[in-house]
């Protein structure tokens, strides 16, 4: 086998060798023994077949655009029908929306009596139609001092004199404020 035949065999899996009886260098050919000059004629390689496409890759950003690819392999040096790689545009998967940390509790909603304290958190989502699960506002009761520590006034007493000027009447009320437990 000649070196060029070996190359043809390695590349394409088959070769044809054709020799002519042309003497090399004008030498004398012994009777019945042709002198051959190496030559190689390779046939076209066999038509290969494609493997199945791989799964689409994950959506990734390259050069500012998001795309994904898939590949297939040819069993020979040539296969019919296209390339071994395809690409398509894709939309990156959205991260599930997450809540921020709760903010600090606000002031009590009233200055006396029972009210509420409120705190908030923010939904952090890249998708306007992907709401966070759960409430954005949380409330708890808060207790302030009573709005009034005084009881209602009692009825007026009788006048201190029965006739003339200078008498007086009185009425009373009680202070019921006690130290409230802190909320």
Automatic annotation (TrEMBL):
Statement: the UniProt record of this protein carries the keyword Repeat: yes
InterPro entries per UniProt: Compl_asym_regulator (IPR052065), TSP1_rpt (IPR000884), TSP1_rpt_sf (IPR036383)
Domain of life: Eukaryota
SUPFAM superfamilies with a match to the protein in the record: TSP-1 type 1 repeat
Signal peptide coordinates: 1-21
Record's keyword terms, sorted: Disulfide bond, Repeat, Signal
Name by which UniProt lists this protein: Uncharacterized protein
Organism of origin: Steinernema carpocapsae (Entomopathogenic nematode)
């Amino acid at each position: 086998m000649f070196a060029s035949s070996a190359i043809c065999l390695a590349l394409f899996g088959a070769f044809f060798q054709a020799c002519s009886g042309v003497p090399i260098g004008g030498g004398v050919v012994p009777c019945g023994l042709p002198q051959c000059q190496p030559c190689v004629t390779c046939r076209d390689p066999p038509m290969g077949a494609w493997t199945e496409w791989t799964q689409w890759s994950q959506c990734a950003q390259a050069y500012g655009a998001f795309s994904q690819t898939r590949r297939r392999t040819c069993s020979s040096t040539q296969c019919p029908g296209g390339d071994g790689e395809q690409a398509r545009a894709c939309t990156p998967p959205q991260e599930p929306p997450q809540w921020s940390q709760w903010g600090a509790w606000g002031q009590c909603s009233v200055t006396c009596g029972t009210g509420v304290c409120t705190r908030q958190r923010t939904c952090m989502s890249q998708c306007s139609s992907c709401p966070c699960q759960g409430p954005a506002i949380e409330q708890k009761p808060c207790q302030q001092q009573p709005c009034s520590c005084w009881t209602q006034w009692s009825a007026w007493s009788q006048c201190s004199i029965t006739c003339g000027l200078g008498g007086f009447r009185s009425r009373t009320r009680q202070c019921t404020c006690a130290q409230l437990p802190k909320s």
